[in-house]
Each structure stands twice: as structure tokens, then as C-alpha cells.
């Protein structure tokens, strides 16, 4: 009898184990896949910059408007042609624009940018003309040329290598220029004077490189905007070179005594600007 009870118990245990083996196992859930966001340059941006401006061939030419003054130029008493190179650091500037990237990650980027820099560069030239016969002292001539501020409104075309953007740019240049001419007698008295101070336009072209800082970069801790509550997608740093040409400007130099036009001086405003700065990038749509 006991033997039958043990056999029955063993059979029941085997049946229970077989049923338990058929039950589904509790496996750990698969890990949730979170895609890494792909960076895009699409969006509006705005920021600050500083710049270095330099010129290499700003020419000033002068002609006489009557036989006497034309003779003075021909004899070298007034300079027929001089150059006035300028250079200096811009105090501060700003930029704003919009980019569109066709394929996020890496791909072609097109955009538009408007930048304005307070250049405040000035060049003065003082020239002594050829002396007169009989030992008479030469005539002094003074020129002043300055570019108060420079703006560029340009289109941009480039290629993005993820967070690095290399681009070319070209379009409109504009700014306020100042030209001043003063011709003196051998004794130092002002004899002829002319001036131009106004807004001018021209063209600009160049290129640059821009880098978007990773969100975990320690450099983001220096972003003032984050402490001011500005909501932005990324901070970018840039360096670019621009060549600008605001064309030529004629300045009539009048006689101080009679007011009659006596000379005509033509100024050329052309140069280069190297910009470095940062931008806040905002989401595009």
C-alpha cells in the first residue's frame, strides 16, 4: 500500500513540473531606443562680433578745374595721386540672419545675413608739394578719409559637416564715409577746401567657417543668454573674411576766398574686414 502511495505522489510531482514548464517565462522588457537628435543649421540666429578692418589700395586722385589749378597739379604743387591705407579694430558689431539646411546632419546650407560693425577707422595724409621757383616754400595739402561704420547684407551658400559649416558669401555693402580735402598756402593759410560725409553703398564678398558648440561643452557656461532667460537651440562661434567696395566719390574743392570750384579730388573706398564672434541659434520652421 505504501509503495502505491509513493508512486502516485511521484507521478503527481512530475505532472506539476511538466505543466510549469509550459508556462511563459517572465523576460526583462527590451531596452527603449532613443534616437540621437541630428543637428541642423536651419533656423534664425543673432549675435555679436568684433572685427579688424584694413585697406591696401585706397587711392585719392586730384585734378584742376581751371588752367591755373590744372597747372598746379601738373607741376606737383598739388598731388595728382596718393594712397591712403587704413586699418584698425572695430569696437563692436552685430549680426542676424536665417539659414536653411536641405538635409540635417551633413548637407548644403543656404541663408541670408545682415551684419553691422562700428569700424571708426580714419587715415590722415599730409603732403608737401613741389617748391616754387625762387625758393618759395611748397604748398601743403591735407587729406582725411574715414569709414565710420560698415554693414553687409549678403547671401550665404555652404556645406555643413554636422556641426561645422563652411560657406561663401556675397551681396550688398553699405556704410558712412567721410572725405575731407584742405589745400594751404605756403604760409599755412587755408586756401581751398572740400568735404563729403554721407551714406554709400557697394558690394561685398568673402567666406567663413562656423562651429556649433555641443550642448555639453563647458563653453556654454559662458553664454550670457542662458542667464538672461534666452531660449536658444545652440551657440555657434564664427570667423569670416569679407572684401568690401563702396566705390568712388568725387569731392569738389572750392576756393575759400571766392567759393569757386577749383579742384576735384576722387576718393576710393575699398578694403577688407575680418570678423569673429558668436551667435545664438533658434529653431527653424
Task: Describe the structure in brief.
12% of the residues lie in helices and 58% in strands. With 285 residues, the chain is mainly beta. Keywords: Signal.
Short key terms for the protein model shown above:
285 residues, mainly beta, eight-stranded antiparallel beta barrel, 3 helices, rod-shaped
Structural notes for this entry:
With 285 residues, this protein is mainly β. The protein is 12% helix and 58% strand. The chain has helices spanning 2-22, 67-74, 224-227; strands spanning 43-54, 59-64, 81-83, 87-101, 106-117, 121-128, 140-161, 164-184, 190-212, 234-255, 261-281. Strands 1-4-5-7-8-9-10-11 form an eight-stranded antiparallel beta barrel. A hairpin with a 2-residue loop joins strand 7 and strand 8. The N and C termini lie far apart (86 Å). The model has no long low-confidence stretch (mean pLDDT 84).
Pairing-aware structural class of the strands and helices?
mainly beta
Widest sheet: strand order? Answer: 1-4-5-7-8-9-10-11
- Number of strand elements: 11
Question: What share of residues is helical?
Answer: 10-25%
Residue fraction in strands? over 45%
What is the helix tally?
3
What are the low-pLDDT stretches, counting only 5+ consecutive residues below 50? none
Overall mean pLDDT stands at 84
Q: Helices and strands, in N-to-C order?
A: HEEHEEEEEEEHEE
State the domain count. 1
Distance between the termini: 86 Å
Shape type = rod-shaped
Largest sheet: 8 strands, antiparallel, barrel
> Cα-atom Rg, whole angstroms?
36 Å
Organism: Methylobacterium aerolatum
InterPro entries: OMP-like, OMP/PagP_B-barrel
Protein name: Outer membrane immunogenic protein
Signal peptide: 1-20
